Automatic annotation (TrEMBL):
GO molecular function, one term: lipid binding
Function: May bind long-chain fatty acids, such as palmitate, and may play a role in lipid transport or fatty acid metabolism.
Protein name in the entry: DegV family protein
Keywords: Lipid-binding
């Protein structure tokens, strides 16, 4: 009999309650200050990051091999036979490769690792769907066969109040950030086919960028029924405004407003508003 574990990393931006509800195993990214470090999700909240940005902008780092091994030891002791790992885009983080190196050394599990080529709650929504399949009794083979189509049905878009934090983290080129700031252009950011950040549109100013984000959501809803999550980093009021502007669409299934996690907040900074869209599966 198969006993299937789902493992992911903390960039999925799921809550502690969701992690417990779906029996997920999390590899936390590290949030590092000069004199201390924290495990994302478990040891630090987004507000802690935002409130300290004027003193120090932390960095993020991968989960250690020792931590990964401790998670695997726990799963082995609990009798798990199969492991499905679903991780942040390998173009944005070394987490996928770090996990692969450790997990592939373990012969006690039959494992499958999936590079989601996405980040944030879009990743989290893929993880939840896989966990729901486990609860429904689907086999290891059925779940891994379904993952590419779940990913294909899932997308995400973001706009930032400032590009400063992405620039500091090396996630976008300095020139793109400088030009955008000077012209007050706010890019709408997504990921390309390789899972790297790409600008899909630009708007002049904050108000127009939020309108553009809403229009992108409506374009997807015009095509098919979707679940939509509006994401924010200390911008809940604006996130609710975006949700209000699309809430009457007949193809909107479930909708919610969610806060991004601490590690995401390091790179996005305060004021991020985004969306996770998942077509009906």
């Amino acid at each position: 009999m198969q006993k299937i574990a789902i493992i992911t990393d903390s960039s999925c931006d799921l809550t502690i309650d969701e992690i417990k509800e779906y029996n997920l195993n999390i590899l936390p990214l590290k949030i590092i200050y000069k004199d201390r470090e924290y495990n994302d999700i478990f040891d630090i909240k987004p507000i802690d990051v935002y409130e300290n940005l004027h003193n120090e902008v932390p960095t993020t780092s991968l989960c250690s091999p020792d931590y990964i091994n401790s998670v695997l030891d726990k799963l082995e002791a609990e009798g798990y036979t199969h492991l499905i790992g679903i991780f942040i885009s390998s173009s944005l983080s070394g987490t996928f490769n770090a996990a692969r190196l450790v997990i592939e050394e373990r012969s006690s599990f039959k494992s499958y690792l999936f590079d989601s080529k996405i980040i944030g709650y879009p990743l989290g929504s893929i993880v939840i769907k896989a966990a729901e399949f486990v609860k429904e009794g689907k086999s290891f083979e059925e779940i891994i066969e379904a993952l590419p189509s779940i990913r294909e049905a899932t997308t995400g878009f973001y706009t930032l109040n400032t590009l400063e934090y992405l620039r500091r983290g090396g996630r976008i080129g300095k020139v793109a950030g400088t030009v955008g700031d000077l012209l007050h252009l706010k890019p709408i950011i997504s990921v390309d086919e390789h899972g790297a950040y790409t600008t899909i549109a630009k708007a002049r100013g904050r108000k127009q960028s939020l309108k553009k984000l809403a229009s992108i959501i409506l374009e997807h809803l015009d095509e098919c029924k979707c679940n939509v999550a509006i994401l924010n980093g200390m911008a809940e009021e604006e996130a609710n405004q975006v949700l209000d502007s699309i809430s009457s669409h007949p193809n909107l299934l479930k909708s919610q407003v969610r806060a991004i996690g601490a590690a995401m907040g390091v790179h996005a900074g305060p004021g991020m508003v985004g969306v996770s869209i998942q077509k009906e599966i």
